[in-house]
Specification:
The protein has 121 residues and is of the alpha+beta class. It contains three helices and four strands. Among the domains are: 26-75, Single Sheet (Rubrerythrin, domain 2); 86-116. It has a four-stranded antiparallel beta sheet with strand order 2-1-4-3, with no helix packed on it. The termini are far apart.
């Protein structure tokens, strides 16, 4: 009896649910263009903030956001802080002659320590 009820059914490959009564969340589509001129669409939630750039799923190149008229969106980069490197932060605390003196002290210490070690130890 059970064999007859499953006959003709591919288990797991087809859903028995329908899309009847399903309400999708509001969405908006953003169009991006890569440097070689290729365009691609990305769908976002309606309340999401659209990023200025997005990586193309096909080519992997970075695409810039296009406005509704098909022109690239002007990106205001005025408020972006330039990241400081470790070297920049170090130069805020010490002068270059102080750093050279510390380097020489450390090198002398390491050379003296290396000379004290026995061969094979």
């Amino acid at each position: 009896m059970a064999d007859r009820s499953l006959r003709g059914m591919r288990l797991g490959s087809q859903s028995l649910q329908s899309e009847e009564g399903v309400e999708f969340s509001p969405r908006k589509k953003a169009v991006y263009q890569t440097t070689d001129g290729a365009t691609f669409d990305v769908v976002f939630a309606a309340e999401a903030e659209i990023p200025d750039s997005w990586q193309s799923p096909k080519s992997g190149q970075e695409g810039l956001l296009l406005s509704a008229d098909g022109k690239p969106v002007d990106i205001d980069r005025g408020d972006v802080k330039v990241p400081r490197t470790h070297w920049d932060m170090l130069l805020e605390r010490r002068t270059r002659p102080e750093l050279e003196e510390l380097l020489q002290e450390r090198l002398d210490y390491l050379r003296a320590r290396k000379g004290q070690q026995k061969i094979g130890a």
